[in-house]
Write a structure and sequence with these properties.
heterodimer; A: mainly beta; four-stranded antiparallel β-sheet; about 50% strand; globular; B: mainly beta; six-stranded mixed β-sheet; five-stranded antiparallel β-sheet; 11 strands
Chain lengths: ~110, ~110
């Protein structure tokens, strides 16, 4: 696609429910990143994919968070048993392989846990 | 500990004025430093990316500098416009495996 696409754009869920967030990266981008941005805070790295594998999962805040990527393209971030502190904007970015390539961000999914 | 610190936390300037945002980092071994602009409710957009050997890079009215010895970078905005109101985020990456550290950002308000 023309840019990184994330869905849904907004999600309100009840505490304890599971949610799935989707990211469609730019076609041909092998690297994919998930970040979280809480209200008024900076970006927090969650996980990085190179192809379908995730060499760095160090940012996932708890075992309730998981992510997968299939076909080297679409990625889903799953949060199980959501808590109110999970409320944030979840941003996805993609880039070509290589350390010095530009990462392009999606618009984000605003998750609100009530 | 790998860290990226930005200053000031927020800044208010009048339209047409210049400003400079600062970024200090301790990320090592250094690979590259990027500046992003994030409008409210939008994803960050890359302004510049600099590697170890680059001291300055411009993108229109935005000019970034890098001093790899002192581990400092600045983003200078010339002749500010109302549309420059946004958060500016400094991001530093390390070599040898994926490690990218984000600064907390500087919130810039440009007033008419």
């Amino acid at each position: 696609g023309a840019g990184v696409s994330q869905s849904p754009s907004n999600k309100v869920t009840e505490k304890g429910k599971d949610v799935e967030l989707r990211c469609d990266p730019i076609s041909g981008h092998t690297a994919l990143y998930w970040y979280r941005q809480s209200l008024g805070q900076g970006l927090e790295f969650l996980i990085y994919f190179q192809g379908n594998s995730a060499p760095d999962k160090s940012g996932l805040p708890s075992d309730r968070f998981s992510a997968e990527r299939t076909g080297g393209s679409v990625s889903t971030l799953t949060i199980q048993r959501t808590q109110q502190e999970d409320s944030a904007v979840y941003l996805c970015a993609s880039s070509l392989a290589g350390a010095n390539t530009e990462a392009f961000f999606g618009q984000g999914t605003r998750l609100t846990v009530v | 500990k790998n860290q990226v610190e930005q200053s000031p936390q927020s800044l208010i300037i009048l339209e047409g004025k210049n400003c400079t945002l600062q970024c200090n980092y301790t990320v090592s071994p250094f690979s590259n430093l990027r500046w992003y602009k994030q409008d409210t409710g939008r994803g960050p957009v890359s302004l510049t990316i600099m590697t170890f050997s680059e001291n300055t890079k411009s993108n229109g009215r935005y000019t970034a500098t890098l001093d790899a010895d002192t581990k400092q970078s600045s983003l200078h905005i010339t002749a500010s416009q109302l549309s420059d109101s946004a958060s500016y985020i400094c991001v530093v990456s390390a070599t040898g495996g994926f490690k990218t550290i984000f600064g907390a950002g500087t919130r810039l308000f440009v007033k008419a």
